[in-house]
TrEMBL record, chain A:
MF terms in GO: ATP binding; biotin carboxylase activity; metal ion binding
Catalysed transformations (reactions): N(6)-biotinyl-L-lysyl-[protein] + hydrogencarbonate + ATP = N(6)-carboxybiotinyl-L-lysyl-[protein] + ADP + phosphate + H(+)
InterPro entries the record matches: ACC_Biotin_Carboxylase, ATP-grasp, BC-like_N, Biotin_carboxylation_dom, Biotin_COase_C, CPAse_ATP-bd, PreATP-grasp_dom_sf, Rudment_hybrid_motif
EC numbers: 6.3.4.14
Protein name from the UniProt record: biotin carboxylase
Gene3D superfamilies: ATP-grasp fold, B domain (3.30.470.20)
Biotin carboxylation domain location: 1-449
PROSITE patterns noted in UniProt: ATP_GRASP, BC, CPSASE_1, CPSASE_2
UniProtKB/TrEMBL annotation, chain B:
TM regions (residue ranges): none
Keyword set includes GTP-binding: no
Keyword Ligase: yes
EC numbers: 6.4.1.1
Tree of life domain: Bacteria
Keyword vocabulary terms for this entry: Biotin, Ligase, Pyruvate
Domain Lipoyl-binding: residue ranges: 554-626
Name of protein: Pyruvate carboxylase
Length: 480, 626
């Protein structure tokens, strides 16, 4: 009998994990809710277990997933991303049930999931954090303390109520003069709102880059990194484009931030694969943001530039194997970019196109092209899950080669039925700032021209539509 | 022997014409399309023939005007200006000619003076010869066009509309020519417009001779139709008596009602010692050879009844009206009454209504009245346009007023007062063109070009529909008739090739059609080797027709409480009331249009408008409750 592993996820990531399981010559068990009954991950898995009508609640139901695992005879669970992936209770339930959870320990998920605790651990380990002060003293003394902070780190800075939270009790201060004007008001306001007049300062990182580092650790504490990723191009904190390595950083900066990530992982006694996220300031300084304790959507780009199968490694580590490679064996070569081809209408505020049927699906191929998707011709996109159709990951020796390949691939794609992010990405690829590698988290806000494209605007497509209509109606009603 | 080319000054052209030993030919491709194919010959076909027609050396190519501007946007989905631009590129030397209905321009009703002038200015950028007529031969109706054409440095070709009968004497026409010359001066070509193809060759010869006797320097352009099969005879007599330009078209497409074949004209006159100046016979033949295979795709637009109609001498319906009247008879289910209408009622109506010229829009008035007289009783259901005619809105009756009993029948016992109060040509106020531009900008969502604005001013709703069509489907003139006019769909696997507007070559392959459970239809096409699918929503109600199904009892009941019923099936061309509006008895609520004729619908009761269930442009047989 083969070793069985249950995949507690759906969509493209389920397929990604199933493939790794099958390549290890194990059997993959899929789970699904009713709206996913036509999902491709069920067809690829060796067996599939129906959890319930959902939507979403069954994928999130710890008991049901554990029961399904026991029933199927699987020894381990891979949680993918989202759903139960960063749920410490789930990891703990696995541990309690004697099922291997493919990921870090429940304890690590717990600690790193708690922002305050994570910050404390990282600060103690000397990981750079966004500069800030302790509670400031009242009166002129506290104000002078604040001015000194401003002089040292520069403006803008945030004046935050210690007892505030959820975005309340925060003031952005642009100049030293403004600081003088705002300081006492902030204290008074804080007193009135939270019955506590203590405030502290934090530096504002203006338009940073989002840089993250893929790390892998085995149970012996042997930790390596797989280089950087630049995920700065985002829409409302949702990543759209992911690039490896973060080539706008100098090799020294890349090495430095990667080593810091390894240190951070070690400080947290981290096990298995994870991602350390940083804010990267324009002056070259960078600050710890958080550690994601799971496989990430964009892991593919790190795989492309290192040649290391992260998911396979995850499974092997979880099953008790040690890392087969040291840091010096990890080589970063070329460039990789992942584009998330979503069933969304970018022009309509990226509104999901769920409920639509994919009438035609033709995907590109060729050198340096990788597709992680679950879409097929005739597939109706459920309205109740996310809108990701397929991830296009492309490898190229140089940045320009990679961009050229991406353009070629997008042009080779034919997806009819739902609107997709493809025309938006085609526009992005031709944007000179993108081609030059000039982007940070403000990119979409400063390039609203990216939404200026016409859907199916080519003359031939318009005429083809007319011909289709003449064909369908049996006559040209516009000429009748 | 000089060929006339587009770059020549008007004076040079007129001199060449006066001194010509022989005659020139105008290829009336537009008139052929309008008369024999309901105006549907596509730009694609004209572009195919362009090179050969250019080489043929015509005086002009009549390619726009008449109803074609409207049909261009309504049925051919081509921009009437773009059409001229593309043809000009393909044929730089040939003058383009239009047919302008004077104050009615390319439509059916009088336009304001400023719209007329604006329209002529824009079209004059492409059109070199302006044939202008008025169906009442009322010269003031053509004045604005004459002036703008002269200002643009183009050639004015005023018409005398020709007909037969005791009043239509040489003396009358010779005087009419004088009236025209008084207004235009002598730098014109004069058209004898024989749109019905009326009279014998001898009659035409005499008329040409009479005019030439009176004005020896005048250049006569004879225009006729071949409805009775004898227009070549009339052309011969016209040329033998001094006409310098005649009309005919490519034999590949000649039919029954339109122009006769050019080649026949050339061959016949050659034998009589008259040469077609500037003409390359080989190119004339080549034009027809190139397009002859296209004709099959237009067969669907040919008249239901084939063959020559020598009876035109009795009913006098002009070329273009023949086909559409037969079509209407078939659709209206009164084909069996056609002989009565054409041979008895129509001649009678013509006589009763003053024996004026049966050409647009006068021919439609005669026709509609004759049909209505036979179907509803004589003058029992007069159209709005007949009323306008009787009120003198189009101009004075040329020979005599209709009898009083007709006025009484149409307007009731108070007809004299009505005639006194409402009679005569209306002064049409200038239109606020800038306001119209704003309205169009709003409807299009972008600033229109001058040409778009002109097109819009001709036919507002149809123009907007066309602009939207173009936005959605692109420039479809690139499609040949075998595609654009295809009936019954394409074959599976059929491959379709065309060049788009920018000259790029494309290949489409027809894939399967699939109907989904939800009623959606998917049409699969391989577009330049890419598979694409076009989704069509299930059709809710076929067409836009709003038909209330009522039992006979219900109709009677509704009628008794004072419903206003549409008197016939037509299109709503205007709505005069708003929901909630109080109306009085006799107030006009809407305007219906059929066969280009507008008829106001008036309320027979006073009351309040509850709902309006139609909009302008709808086909309607609905009931408006009050």
């Amino acid at each position: 009998m083969k070793t069985k592993i249950l995949v507690a996820n759906r969509g493209e990531i389920a397929i990604r994990i199933i493939r790794a399981i099958q390549e290890l010559n194990y059997e993959a068990v899929a789970i699904y809710e009713t709206p996913d009954k036509d999902s491709k991950h069920i067809r690829i898995a060796d067996e599939a277990i129906w959890l319930g009508d959902g939507p979403r609640c069954d994928y999130l139901n710890i008991d049901k997933v554990i029961n399904a695992t026991i029933k199927s005879g699987a020894v381990a669970i891979h949680p993918g991303y989202g759903f139960l992936a960063e749920n410490a209770d789930f990891a703990r339930a696995c541990e309690d049930a004697g099922i291997i959870f493919i990921g870090p320990s429940s304890d690590a998920i717990d600690k790193l999931g708690n922002k305050v605790m994570a910050r404390t651990i990282m600060a103690e380990a000397g990981i750079p954090m966004v500069p800030g002060t302790q509670n400031l003293k009242a009166g002129e003394e506290g104000l002078e303390e604040a001015r000194e902070f401003g002089r040292k780190y520069g403006y803008p800075i945030m004046l935050k109520a210690t007892s505030g939270g959820g975005g309340r009790g925060i003031r952005r201060v642009e100049t030293e003069k403004e600081l003088g004007e705002q300081y006492e008001i902030a204290r008074a306001e804080s007193q009135a709102a939270f019955n506590d007049d203590s405030v502290y300062l934090e530096k504002v990182v203006v338009n940073p880059k989002h840089i993250e580092v893929q790390i892998i650790a085995d149970s012996t504490g042997h930790t390596v990194h797989l280089g950087t990723r630049d995920c700065s191009i985002q829409r409302r904190n949702q990543k759209l484009v992911e690039i490896a390595p973060a080539f706008q950083l100098t090799p020294e900066q890349q090495e430095d931030i990667s080593q810091t990530a390894v240190q951070a992982a070690k400080a947290a006694n981290y096990f298995n694969a994870g991602t350390v996220e940083f804010l990267f300031d324009s002056d070259g300084s960078y600050y710890f943001m958080e550690i994601n304790t799971r496989i990430q959507v964009e892991h593919t780009v790190s795989e492309m530039i290192t040649g290391i199968d992260i998911v396979r490694t995850q499974i092997k580590l979880a099953l008790g194997k040690e890392l087969l490679f040291g840091q010096d064996e990890v080589q970063l070569r070329g460039h990789a970019v992942e584009l998330r081809i979503n069933a969304e209408d970018p022009k309509n505020n990226f509104m999901p196109e769920g409920g639509k049927t994919v009438r035609v699906y033709r995907s590109p191929g060729g050198y340096g092209v990788r597709l992680d998707g679950f879409c097929y011709q005739g597939y109706t996109i459920p309205q109740v899950y996310d809108s990701l159709l397929v991830k296009l990951t492309v490898f190229g020796w140089s940045w320009h080669e990679t961009v050229d390949r991406l353009r070629r691939c997008l042009n080779n794609f034919v997806i009819s039925g739902p609107k997709t992010t493809i025309p938006f990405f085609l526009n992005l690829l031709d944007e000179p700032d993108f081609q030059a590698g000039n982007f940070d988290t403000s990119f979409l806000d400063t390039h609203d021209n990216l939404l200026n494209y016409e859907e199916d605007a080519s003359e031939v497509n318009k005429l083809a539509r007319l011909i289709a209509e003449i064909h369908q109606k049996g006559e040209n009603t516009y000429a009748a | 022997m000089t060929r006339i080319t587009q770059d020549m000054e008007t004076a040079v052209v007129l001199k060449a014409l006066r001194e010509a030993d022989g005659y020139y030919i105008t290829n009336t491709a537009r008139d052929m399309s309008q008369s024999d194919y309901k105006n549907r010959i596509l730009l694609h076909t004209d572009l195919m023939a362009a090179k050969a027609r250019e080489a043929a050396g015509y005086f002009s190519l009549e390619i726009t005007g008449g109803a074609s501007v409207h049909v261009d946007i309504l049925r051919k989905q081509v921009d009437p200006f773009l059409k001229l631009e593309l043809l000009r590129e393909a044929m730089p030397n040939t003058m383009f000619q239009t047919l302008c209905r004077g104050v009615n321009l390319f439509g059916y009703r009088p336009y304001p003076q400023n719209v007329i002038r604006f329209t002529v200015r824009e079209f004059a950028k492409y059109v070199d010869v302006w044939r202008t007529f008025d169906f009442m031969n009322h010269i003031p109706n053509m004045q604005a066009v004459f002036e703008e054409v002269a200002k643009a440095g183009k050639i004015n070709e005023p018409c005398i509309c020709f007909s037969t009968g005791p009043e239509h004497t040489n003396e009358y026409y010779v005087n009419k020519v004088q009236d025209i010359l008084d207004v235009t001066g002598e730098d014109i070509t004069l058209c004898i417009k024989n749109h019905g193809g009326l009279g014998t060759p001898r009659r035409i010869g005499e008329l040409v001779d009479a005019i030439k006797q009176a004005y020896p320097d005048i250049i006569i352009h004879y225009h006729g139709h071949n409805t009775d099969g004898n227009d070549v005879g009339r052309i011969v007599e016209a040329v033998m008596n001094g006409a310098k330009i005649v009309d005919a078209s490519d034999h590949a497409f000649t039919g029954f009602y339109g122009p006769p074949p050019i080649l026949t004209v050339i061959q016949t006159l050659k034998d009589l010692g008259k040469t077609a100046v500037g003409i390359d016979e080989e190119a004339v033949i080549a034009s027809s050879d190139i397009i002859k295979d296209e004709r099959q795709h237009y067969a669907q637009f040919e008249s239901q009844i084939k063959g020559f109609q020598p009876t035109v001498q009795i009913h006098k319906l002009p070329g273009g009206a023949m086909g559409s009247s037969l079509e209407q008879a078939v659709k209206g289910g009164f084909l069996d009454k056609m002989p009565d209408i054409l041979h008895k009622e129509l001649p009678k109506v013509q006589k009763e209504l003053g024996n004026y010229w049966s050409v647009t829009p006068g021919s439609q008035i005669l026709w509609t009245t004759a049909v209505s007289n036979v179907l509803d009783g004589r003058y029992e259901a007069p159209s709005g346009d007949l009323k306008n005619l009787l009120l003198g809105k189009y101009g004075p009756f040329p020979f005599y007023q209709p009898d009083e009993w007709i006025f009484e029948k149409v307007f009731g016992p108070d007809w004299k007062t009505i005639l006194e109060e409402e009679g005569g040509i209306d002064d049409i106020e200038d239109m606020d063109i800038e306001q119209e531009r704003e309205t169009l900008t709003e409807r299009l969502g972008c600033e229109p070009t001058e040409q778009q604005l002109v097109t819009y001013l001709q036919h507002p709703n149809d123009a907007v529909n066309f602009f939207k069509f173009e936005e959605k489907f692109g420039k479809s003139y690139v499609l040949p008739p075998s595609i654009f006019l295809r009936q019954g769909g394409f074959d599976l696997g059929e491959s379709i090739t065309f060049k788009d507007h920018s000259g790029k070559e494309h290949m489409l392959e027809v894939g399967p059609v699939q109907k989904n459970d939800d009623g959606e239809t998917n049409v699969y096409l391989n577009v330049d080797h890419h598979e694409r699918v076009y989704v069509f929503e299930p059709e809710a109600v076929a067409g836009t027709q709003v038909v209330a199904t009522l039992s006979k009892e219900e109709i009677v009941e509704l009628a008794s409480v004072g419903d206003i019923r549409a008197p016939f099936a037509g299109n709503v061309s205007g709505i005069n009331v708003k929901e909630g509006q109080e109306i009085t008895k006799g107030e006009q609520v809407m305007v219906l249009e059929a066969m280009k004729m507008q008829t106001p619908v008036v309320s027979e009761v006073a009351g309040t408008v509850k709902t309006i269930s139609v909009k302008v442009g709808d086909a309607s047989r609905s009931v408006i409750s009050s």
